[in-house]
Amino acid sequence: MCDESILDLDELNEECGVFGIYGHPDASQFTYYGLHALQHRGQESAGIVSTNRDKFHVHRGTGLVTEVFDNERIRKLKGNIAIGHVRYSTAGGTGIANAQPLVFNFAKGELAIATNGNLVNANRLRKELEETGSIFQTTTDTEVIAHLIARSQAPTLEEAVKEALGRVVGAYALLILTNDQLIAAEDPLGLRPFSMGVLGEAHVFSSETCAFDIIGADFWREVEPGEMIIIDQDGLRTSRFAPRAEGKICSFEYVYFARPDSNIGGINVHAARKRMGRVLAEESPVEADVVTGVPDSSTSAAIGFAEATGIPYELGLIKNRYVGRTFIQPSQELREQGVKMKLSAVRGVVEGKRVVMVDDSIVRGTTSRRIVNLLREAGATEVHVRISSPPVKNPCFYGIDTPTRDQLVASSMTVAEICEEIGADSLSFISTEGMVEAISGAAGGTKRGYCLACFTGHYPTAIEDEMAIGGKR
């Protein structure tokens, strides 16, 4: 099953999103709403596991949240504790077998697990486990964690989880459900966003704070790097499975992945993106008549660019939201038509104008070239491309679906060569320093560390197996 749209072939995709709630009679209903708010983080599959403290109730399926669940299915997910997951696969394949949350029976009882992220030592751990008798039912990294928990000789589940997390390396926001416990954990570097909120007497966890807003929950705080939170009938307690360290949140959450209404690290994503646009304008000004953003993730940066330059911001590009997700055509001519079906240039806005097209990133370069052509066909006299992230030169191994290094156009071409490749009149990227300044300086933000590996090639963890030579999983 392939759920990439014609434009998504040249875009980065987040692996998944997680949501969990403890102590609410409508836990499954709220988990459904939470997953709907996180739909942008994964569209291949969705799942919810709930418990009424007696047994698990499970439903998973491929497709969007609204396709997987209906009122009847949600009513069957009884209980006041639930976890949910939306998935876009980078590690492992597509299909129902790899849909999460995964459910297991082991010596300490039933266990459901859902993660957002990617482990860089999963292949080695899987091989070790298989050699000692473990039988895997899926190809996901998440199952590696489950097997490590099941194989642990620790006296309690809490200690078994700590032991397992002490062996894995990578990025993850993790939720574990038993019949009477909810456990949340964040990787030691805090690479993936993970927040905790409250809804009355209930506790809520989510990959993004936008899910709290949709259910009326209040943000409490972020799950700290290396922290494990346990909630059961005795209340909430916290523990550490790794020493406290400076976080390294993925910078692309601010550039592209997170919803604009989410807050990460005390920083509103929309505010950060606007500031990126302002910094980009300061670093790479250009004479033009109109500024437009590539919808939707680039809109905030385009507004910031326009405000900083005084050039009017206009809706020069319109996204058609009703194109099927599986619209992929084999021929180049039909691919070009597919772009036009999903994205249209507004002739009345761009005709006869010098246009600044602001986008969040350039991956392979093919989509940028097609959008530049759309603007020219609509009568733009000049098209100047401004990118609100630095050149993406390196693959990500922490839960973002990037092409191999040799498919990343910035890894083998100069900015001038990319400009010629996409047919723009000029091209500029924000500097890495400028992007970090824009994120950290956004309203309400605090200084913290960021993972910049896809831009700089400096990975915050060791990279194992075939990934070290430039591939991706």
Based on the model shown, name its key terms:
single chain; 473 residues; alpha+beta; Glutamine Phosphoribosylpyrophosphate, subunit 1, domain 1; Rossmann fold; 2 domains; seven-stranded antiparallel beta sheet; six-stranded antiparallel beta sheet; 16 helices; disordered N terminus; disordered C terminus
What characterizes the major β-sheet? 7 strands, antiparallel
Give the distance, in angstroms, between the N- and C-terminal Cα atoms: 17 Å
Number of helices: 16
Assign the CATH superfamily of the largest domain.
Answer: Aminohydrolase, N-terminal nucleophile (Ntn) domain
The CATH topology of the largest domain turns out to be Glutamine Phosphoribosylpyrophosphate, subunit 1, domain 1
Describe this structure in words.
By secondary structure, the chain is an alpha+beta fold. It folds into 2 domains: 8-245, Aminohydrolase, N-terminal nucleophile (Ntn) domain (Glutamine Phosphoribosylpyrophosphate, subunit 1, domain 1); 263-469, Rossmann fold (3-Layer(aba) Sandwich). It is 29% helix and 26% strand. The chain contains 16 helices and 25 strands. The strands form 7 sheets. The chain has a 7-stranded antiparallel sheet. Strand 16 (263-264) and strand 17 (267-268) form a beta hairpin. Helix 9 (269-283) crosses helix 10 and helix 9 (269-283) packs antiparallel against helix 15 (432-440). The protein is elongated, with a radius of gyration of 22 Å. It starts with 12 loop residues before the first strand and ends in a 17-residue tail after the last helix. 53% of the residues are buried. Mean pLDDT is 89; it is low at 1-9, 324-332 and 466-473. In the C-terminal section; belongs to the purine/pyrimidine phosphoribosyltransferase family. It comes from Paenactinomyces guangxiensis. [4Fe-4S] cluster binds at residues 250, 396, 451, 454.
